[in-house]
Amino acid sequence: MSATMVSAVANVSASEPIYLDRNAPIEKRVEDALSRMTLEEKVALCHAQSKFSSPGVERLGIPEVWMSDGPHGVRAEINWNDWGYSGWNNDSITAFPALTALAATWNPELAALYGKSIGEEARYREKDVLLGPGVNIYRTPLNGRNFEYMGEDPYLAGEMVVPYVQELQKNGVAACVKHFALNNQEKWRGTVNVDLSDRALYEIYLPAFKKAVQDGGAWAIMGAYNKIWDQHCCHNHRLLKDILRDEWGFDGVVITDWGGAHDTKEAALNGLDIEMGSYTNGLTSESEFGYDDYYLANPYLEMIKSGEVPESTVNEKARNILRLIFRTAMNTDKPFGSKCTPEHYAAAKLIGDESVVLLKNAGILPLDGTKYNSILVVGDNATRRLTDGGGSSELKPKDYLSPLSALQALYGDKVKYAQGYACGRTHYEAEDIIPQEEQDRLREEAVAMAKDADVVIYIGGLNKNAWQDCESTDRREYELPFGQNQLIEELIEANPNIVIANISGNAYEMPWVNKVPAILHTSYLGTMGGASLADVIAGNVNPSGKLPYSIPKKLQDCGANFYGEISYPGIEEGDADFVAIPGSVIEGGKKPHQTYKEDILVGYRWHDTKKIPALFPFGYGLSYTDFEYGKPIATGKIIDENGEIEIEVPVTNKGMREGSEIVQLYISDLKSSLPRPVKELKGFDKVKLAPGETKTVKFKITPEELKFFDDKAHAWVAEPGKFKALIGASSADIKHTLDFEYK
Ligand code: BGC
Fold first, then answer.
1. Share of the chain above pLDDT 90, in %
2. Domain 356-538 maps to which CATH number in 1.10.10.10, 3.90.1150.10, 3.40.50.1700, 3.30.2130.30?
3. Does ligand 1 come within 6 angstroms of the Cβ of 69?
């Protein structure tokens, strides 16, 4: 018997195994299991054993923790020890719409349906932790990962993330909310050091995480790659200890982003629980750097043994991890799950339907097939499998219905197709690899065909290749790539009867906006995406999505991009403290640092306050019907500390078809001791209305909705004074205003 085996036996308690008693209180089970474990077993819990799992305690029958990306579907199985796909035949899934599409529905019921459905798939695939959802705030349209998040507004993201997390976890699968915090760009994501005010942190970047933790009850959270205040987020004392644990009372597990740990002592002391994906320490290749070499493996064990860090740190981590295991892998009440069911396809379709945003319509939409003999579809995204690429959110859907197939199913052989432009098919192939002659040929072919068509439907946008909507790279420019603007301009000349129906997880420049009669904007919609887009085009679905982020006219109109490089993407100086391996998932840089100069003025807060109108504002989206907002009635004009005002707004469908309207409440603080944005979203409701029908939308205002974060006092405060409640159809379309006072 080896020394470790002897010490293991010596540590085993002879008492009844309370940890196996499913009816015992969870904290008792945790303490019981902990009391039976050796130091080595506790340390083993704290780091990966494969690319996507961490160990349990074999001797005690405590199972491993299996994780999977997230957040738009359960990712295909990855090899034990490298990033290759395992090639299983039983891991294809339903691809749900991207989270930015979910946010565009402004429908928390659909967020619940999303969480339930993806949770069932994760359960069926026997996962314990789903690596999502992501609630990093959309700060700049250049961020390659905005499609994985829920837009620019903390209130909207917070309202959407809670039901997602709650319903997901009913399956005994933990949400791992990511990336905590400020992973708001992919460029230099592994090294960039973010500097920002406490106000921006608390008012803009933290609220959705806080709601996910406190209201959603998230069981796990993922640290971000970047640094803030000179310390990596995965072992950032202030973020993980002061804020997450002490202020919010989080009792779940903090997991690193893959390769996000860089220091044993900080990881030991600053509240990290599980270290994943430490592909390399920057100096050695994967084969030379085993799981035992992880920061939270042998080096940690040594530090505890030598007394450099206290053993209490590993007890704390093991407690959190055991709690997670009892909630998930050892949860005997969890359902069995299911995947690719008709219900999941229907859920994906419904979410997709409600996410499509109609930006402009001079009457051409919905497209009545009987009026046209030839319909030309142009654009690579009409056929491209947009579940491929994008990084860790890449999916292997069992089925994928492209927009072109869906349009063909609706309009039959009237539909012709021209690709129009090309982009490389594999992840890191981009426009550069397509020779200009080939792009010219494709463009000329499409333009020639457009001349002969009755109507053109253009389906382009971004895709999931590098430098588009894709993890680990940011976009290189705000305009559409692959010469699409030139193509669109030439198509308009050839045939002005054109509908732009772009797919993109981000805003982009639209120099042709005034020349086209109709624009639809949607994100990556997964398995059923083609059907959602085609049904909106044909009018089988009345569009009801609204923008979860502003679309600035030009890049410099966005607050984050206004102040130049120091604000985005940052400035490089000095040597990075670790060297990222070329081609690894973490792009390094020479110690870049950045300051969020726009501070709390993110998205519409910037456009409104600086009086720089967006091309299409936050909260904007049209319908095939018209809505009328009646005069709102408030229950009072004054609130005090314990008071509330209720506002009722009648909304009527004045058109001829059923439709849904998203009614928004913004609050404006007329005078405050610290600067505030002109207004902030504090309520919304989506109402479905039959033609002629009126429904009353109700909002409640309490002192909570009036607060800002006073950084000096480190507290949320509502200051007495005058306020306005603004009821609108978007952040720039305010229908009614009510004055009130806080005393
Ligand atoms: C991403 C995470 C992801 C992880 C595992 C990282 O590169 O940033 O979002 O969950 O990989 O695939």
1. 90
2. 3.40.50.1700
3. yes
- Report the pLDDT value the prediction gives residue 598, as an integer from 0 to 100: 98
d(CA 370, CA 368): 6
Nearest to 617 by CA among 607, 625, 627, 609: 607
Task: Locate the domains of the chain by residue range.
Answer: 66-285+315-327, 356-538, 625-742
Q: Can you list the residues of the chain whose pLDDT is less than 70?
A: 1-15, 279-289, 425-432, 575-589
520 half-sphere exposure, CB direction, 13 A CA radius: 35
**Burial (Cβ within 10 Å: 0-12, 13-18, ≥19) of residue 197:** middle
Instruction: Yes or no: say if 51 and 277 are a contact pair by the CB < 8 Å rule.
Output: yes
Q: Which atom of ligand 1 is nearest to the CA of 391?
A: 7
Interatomic CA distance for residues 371 and 387, integer angstroms: 33
pTM of the predicted structure, to 2 decimals: 0.96
CATH code that applies to domain 625-742: 2.60.40.10
Q: Give the atom of ligand 1 at the shortest distance from the alpha carbon of 131.
A: 10
The CATH number given to 66-285+315-327 is: 3.20.20.300
Closest residue by CA, ligand 1 atom 12: 392
Query: Which residue has a Cα nearest atom 4 of ligand 1?
Result: 258
In DSSP terms, which residues pair with 715 in a beta bridge? 710
Burial (0-12, 13-18, 19+ Cβ within 10 Å), 429: middle
Q: Pull the structure tokens for residue 165.
A: 């997390």
Candidates 545, 98, 116; CA nearest to 347 is 116
Closest residue by Cα to atom 8, ligand 1, is: 257
| 50-73 per-position pLDDT tens digit | 999 999 999 999 999 999 999 999
